Amino acid sequence: MKPEILRIEKEQKTPFIELDPFEGVLTIEGRSIPEDPEAFYNSVYINMLEYYKAPRELTTFNFQFEYINSGSSKFILKFFLLIKQQYDAGNDCVVNWRYEEDDENILDLGRHYKNTFKLPFKFIEIYS
């Protein structure tokens, strides 16, 4: 399968997603409350599996959630399980966890993922 950029535009209940295999960057930004999280995130996961067949030297993950429901967080957890597996296999990465100032819930979620998976995290506060 030839690599190509996966791009999903932001909608009212779903975030903007872009997986650029040429640059080695996955970006997820916005509200994540899809009706069917599995249907929404499955193509992203499949594309991540494909990407990791020939990853870049450094993969950058940019996460910036306005809000994330429990169904979506299960899929983000699944992404982190894959990222950790690949990191432990020698595929370097950095996770940029952006959160809006005073959004303790999103910051705490990022801290939870960092502590759980022991990946290189950068916490970036966004000021409105």
Commentary on this structure:
The protein contains 3 helices and 6 strands; from the N terminus they run βββαβαβαβ. The chain is α/β, with parallel strands linked by helices and 128 residues long. It has a single domain, classed as 2-Layer Sandwich (Transcription Regulator spoIIAA). A 6-stranded mixed β-sheet has the order 1-2-3-4-5-6, covered by helices on one side. Helix 2 (70-88) links the parallel strand 4 and strand 5. Helix 1 (37-51) packs parallel to helix 2 (70-88).
Characteristics of this structure?
alpha/beta; 6-stranded mixed beta sheet; globular
SSE order, one letter for each helix or strand: EEEHEHEHE
Q: From the alpha carbons, calculate the radius of gyration and give it in angstroms.
A: 14 Å
- How many separate domains make up the residues? 1
Strand coverage percent:
25-35%
Looking across the biggest beta sheet, what order are the strands in? 1-2-3-4-5-6
Average pLDDT figure: 96
How would you sum up the major sheet? 6 strands, mixed
CATH architecture label name: 2-Layer Sandwich
Summary, kept brief:
With 128 residues, this protein is of the alpha/beta class.
Outline the secondary-structure elements.
Blueprint: E1 6-8, E2 16-20, E3 25-32, H1 37-51, E4 58-68, H2 70-88, E5 92-100, H3 104-117, E6 121-126
Parallel strand pairs: 3-4, 4-5, 5-6
Antiparallel strand pairs: 1-2, 2-3
Helix pairs in contact: 1-2
